């Protein structure tokens, strides 16, 4: 079993975010003894609208980054499949998803009597009469104080400004006796709606850093409370949802990407990462008028030019073909107008059970190809082609399958490989006897030659933030939208260089967990419905099973 550490006797302050603690032995298993509850146990819940987990990871704001050392946290927390503001807050404050509480819009009221059965967590606790919690809510959204947090002891509605929310919250923390406090910031969501929910957008990143500074002020205020040394605080930072471009409300991965952080100086660092998966894809198939393919919106992008030390490239993708399929010559990833002989450019294609790359250039009228490996077993495979220019401008094209080297051909004679045709997933015209049928994901283009060891190390993953050549990534299409006809480029410098999917298609669930060693010990990350569970744990509140509050306990690593 895994060993989990916990610490006691910590003398550090929250403001310092560093500790000098006496450790006791590792506890076998992952169910360390529950911390002793006292009437000094308190919870601060900081709700942050529109804070996408993956984007806060990229920004790495200083206060949150310091908190991580003593937090359980996840950049992969999942919001509910309905990510409107109303539904997202209702999920947090009721502990059940929209399918049960039926709260979708800004009225914050259930659509039916069956939905109304799932009352807010605070209301349910109050109804039991077992404990009179002293609770405070500070928000600029008055409807929240009148509905989801109506049973808070003290409700403060401020003007629609995060600084006003901060000032009110600080004042209450300094002067009020309390057990539980909710503070809601919405400046990040405003920035996302106006500019986009991405870390590389200055306004969105600035909004994250501003709220981060406000979190720092709240922590300092807690530390300055007269009886702080005797209090036992859990600070939760919980976002509502992420966003896709400048919108949210639906169930794309980007919109459902949330963030959870549970902080206390007596916690060891524990990050919960989502297992690496291919959640969904599109079947690229057929040809001519029935074609389902995806075409890049910039035909000039991703040309590899003539052999030179400046033109070094690597192309990678993950593919899945039907089991036992043996088609003849269908191209499925191309920078080329046609598969016909003498057409400048390159094409990944399938020939029988295996894949190959076919090339032609301005320096020759023939085609040349390098063989890959079998891919027709119905499983996902990672394909790589390295375009390397060596000494004396000799260009070599090398193929790899699932990180293993296959073949190489010298293509120097083809000269310049630039094509006026756009990068295309799926059908292109030409010498094709069997239409393509293939699923694709994790398409990558690097402006460098990746070493064999690096290709092998990152062939079984679609997480690239630790990739040693990350600065050389010039195009990356995860194909994880699960909705719409746009496959977005995830490289900040290439934002907008997207694929448009053509034809009649549907997004199909894959739910494929990549067979990586790093996935072995991973578990599904938290959901937004888990918030109430953590609060109840820390404040020693009983959750009635009839309430159907979901989630699991993430604070047992204590």
UniProtKB/TrEMBL annotation:
Superkingdom per UniProt: Bacteria
UniProt keyword Signal present: yes
Keyword Cell membrane: no
Residues in the signal sequence: 1-20
GO molecular function, one term: hydrolase activity, hydrolyzing O-glycosyl compounds
InterPro entries: Alkaline_phosphatase_core_sf, ConA-like_dom_sf, DUF4983, Phosphodiest/P_Trfase
Keywords annotated in UniProt: Signal
Domain DUF4983, chain residue ranges per copy: 465-555
Record GO biological process: carbohydrate metabolic process
Protein name, UniProt field: Type I phosphodiesterase / nucleotide pyrophosphatase
């Amino acid at each position: 079993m895994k060993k989990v550490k916990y610490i006691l006797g910590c003398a550090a302050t929250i403001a310092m975010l560093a500790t000098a603690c006496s450790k006791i032995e590792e506890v076998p298993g992952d169910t360390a003894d529950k911390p002793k509850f006292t009437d000094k146990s308190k919870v601060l819940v900081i709700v942050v609208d529109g804070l996408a987990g993956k984007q806060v990871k990229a920004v790495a704001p200083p206060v949150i980054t310091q908190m991580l050392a003593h937090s359980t946290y996840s950049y992969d927390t999942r919001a509910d499949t309905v990510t409107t503001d109303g539904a997202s807050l209702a999920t947090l404050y009721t502990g059940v998803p929209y399918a049960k509480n039926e709260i979708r819009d800004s009225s914050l009221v259930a659509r039916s009597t069956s939905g109304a059965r799932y009352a807010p967590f605070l209301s349910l606790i109050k109804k039991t009469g077992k404990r009179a919690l002293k609770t405070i809510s500070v928000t600029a959204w008055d409807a929240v104080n009148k509905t989801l947090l109506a049973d808070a002891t003290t409700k403060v509605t401020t003007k629609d400004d995060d600084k006003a929310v901060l000032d009110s919250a600080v004042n209450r923390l300094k002067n009020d006796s309390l057990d539980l406090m909710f503070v809601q910031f919405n400046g990040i969501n405003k920035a996302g709606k106006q500019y986009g929910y991405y870390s590389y957008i200055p306004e969105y990143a600035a909004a994250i850093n501003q709220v981060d500074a406000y979190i720092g002020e709240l922590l300092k205020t807690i530390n300055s409370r007269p009886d702080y040394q005797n209090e036992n605080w859990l600070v939760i930072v919980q976002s509502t949802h992420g966003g896709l471009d400048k919108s949210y409300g639906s169930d794309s991965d980007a919109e459902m990407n949330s963030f959870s952080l549970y902080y206390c100086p007596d916690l060891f660092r524990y990050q919960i990462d989502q297992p690496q998966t291919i959640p969904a894809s599109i079947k690229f198939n057929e040809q001519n008028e029935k074609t389902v393919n995806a075409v890049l919106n910039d035909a000039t992008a991703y040309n590899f030019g003539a052999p030179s030390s400046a033109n070094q490239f690597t192309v990678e993708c993950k593919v899945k073909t039907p089991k036992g399929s043996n088609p003849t010559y269908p191209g499925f990833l191309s920078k080329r107008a046609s598969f016909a002989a003498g057409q400048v450019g390159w094409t990944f294609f399938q020939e029988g059970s295996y894949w190959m790359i076919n090339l032609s250039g301005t320096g020759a009228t023939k085609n040349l190809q390098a063989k890959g490996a079998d891919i027709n077993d119905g499983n996902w495979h990672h394909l790589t082609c390295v375009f390397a220019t060596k000494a004396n401008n000799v260009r070599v094209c090398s193929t790899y399958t699932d990180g293993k080297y296959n073949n190489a051909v010298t293509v120097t004679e083809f000269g310049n490989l630039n094509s006026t045709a756009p990068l295309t997933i799926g059908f292109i015209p030409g010498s094709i006897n069997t239409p393509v049928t293939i699923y694709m994901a994790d398409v990558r283009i690097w402006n460098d030659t990746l070493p064999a060891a690096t290709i092998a190390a990152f062939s079984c993953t679609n997480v690239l933030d630790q990739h040693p050549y990350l600065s050389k990534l010039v195009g990356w299409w995860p194909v994880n939208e699960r909705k719409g006809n746009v496959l977005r480029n995830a490289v900040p410098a290439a934002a907008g260089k997207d694929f448009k999917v053509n034809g009649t298609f549907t997004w199909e669930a894959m739910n494929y967990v990549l067979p990586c060693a790093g996935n072995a010990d991973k578990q599904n990350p938290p959901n937004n419905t888990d918030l109430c569970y953590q609060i109840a744990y820390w404040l020693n509140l009983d959750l009635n099973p009839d309430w159907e509050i979901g989630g699991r306990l993430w604070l047992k690593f204590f």
